[in-house]
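Justification of resources, computational component.

The compute hours requested in this renewal are based largely on the per-chain cost of generating structure records like the one below. Each record pairs the submitted sequence with a full structure-token output. That output is archived, and it is also reused by downstream analysis tasks.
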Amino acid sequence: MGTSKKKAQLDGQRAASEVDKEIGRRLRLLRVDRNLSQQELGKVLGVSFQQIQKYEKGVNRVSAGRLVEIATKLETAPHELLGWLDKKTITPLMDDDTYKLMRVFSKLEDKYKTPIRMLITNLITLETS
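The structure output for this chain reads:
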């Protein structure tokens, strides 16, 4: 067991889990979608950009209160950060390649977005037929 994991357990805190990583990933996606830097989000939340970085990597757990505060600042609902589509599951948002594609796509000029979206839709249609 790693030293930081032991320390967290001794302090009465649980180590970050896969759920924490997924919440961090969703936080990052929503922050990027809102064109906010880690520093800007940290400033409105009253924490350092390093803390935002740790949340996004799933290194530090996000408390329930902080989750609600983050959701409010990002103009979304807490269940979006949690990934709740129903009461029993947390559904993964996307894989790494999809995330990278989304980031590149979001930087494109609007005039290119529709043709690229149509191309992807046509590829999917060809693949499933």
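Helices lie at 3-10, 18-33, 38-45, 49-57, 64-73, 78-82, 96-107, 110-128. Confidence is low (pLDDT under 50) at residues 8-12.
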